[in-house]
Amino acid sequence: GWEMKEKSTTSPLKRILVKCASQAKAYGSCVAEKVPQVDHNMCSKEFLALKACMQSVVCLHT
Q1: What is the pTM of this model?
Q2: What is the domain extent for residue 25?
């Protein structure tokens, strides 16, 4: 069935989404506030936090 199993069968992406949900949310809402004035430097603090979280999740499981 569709039960959540805490095994290595969970995809890395799913783990990232679970572990980094708050960072992803912060980045997403920051970007949403700035649209349509999108620029590549905007929300860089939030982006870096999300990136750091993703990297730590990926590194823990390799």
Answers
A1: 0.67
A2: 14-60
